[in-house]
Amino acid sequence: MIIPAPPSVVLRVKPMSHEVVVIDGLSKAFVARQSLFTKQSLQALDNVSLTLRHGHTVAVIGESGSGKSTLARLLMRLERPSSGNISLLHQGRLTDIESIRSREFYRRVQMVFQDPYSSMNPRKRIWQIVTKPLTNLSDCARANLREIAERELQAVGLGTQHVDAFPHQLSGGERQRVAIARAMTVKPDVLVLDEPLSALDVSIQAQILNLLLEFQQRMTLTSLFITHDLSVVSHIADDVAVLKAGQLVEYGPTAAVIAAPAHPYTQTLIANMPGRPRTRSVLAGELQPQQRSNVPGPEARTTRAQSRPEFSFRVPRFDIGRDRELVQIKGVQR
To answer: pTM score, two decimals?
Structure first.
């Protein structure tokens, strides 16, 4: 049975609270040149609206290419939207982020990237990397930077032996801790995390997740957590937004969305969570089980190949110190 397409988005909204970031009708299209005279437009995001409230975490989930990282880059002002706007609570009112000075904006909003190693200068020591936001965004005395770095590294579970190390001398989990420490150095109001656990082992993922939960509770952070792992979402997120092909298809409290997903795409994601029965819905455009059974399998292809007439030919083989001999090779005529 093919499930018909549902409404474009299913909303389950929490009671209103202190809004910190409001994303309204955000769209982003990338233009790629196919040839000298033709261009192709790729719609990465299409009319996405979200609200980040004070002390809450909104998780954004979806498959690769659904627009999750594009949303993060737009929020960080690394890309400009094609339409729509993003507002940040600034001086007591919601203000378009493009009108906020860069130093003030990045003091308020920081990001933890998916690959921490690529976001670090390999020529700098860890204490210099951790304190880089302070040197760029504040007037902190340079004499105190090393002491501040030691304190921030200790807060993420790293010791003094890591202070003078270089990024290549650390493990993946240690680099991710350094990336978190760097983001937290300026005490931001909003933290954007772009799949911070995807490149880590399962045991390290649990440690980093517990560290993020500790920061969230201690500092009342507002976070945008991008991931494709629904089991992580249920632990860390208050709200969840589901993206599919750049469109927001479901948005609401995490417990409500996981317990009773309304969109077939969300149902498929939840059905494939670890520990759940492997039952799934057939989405529009997919082959039904009885249709898939009619597709020739490898056995049928092998039978056809074996029914073809055989052929043989002889090729010379050269071996040093021996006479040339002929080797007969058999095959199947195609």
So the answer is: 0.74
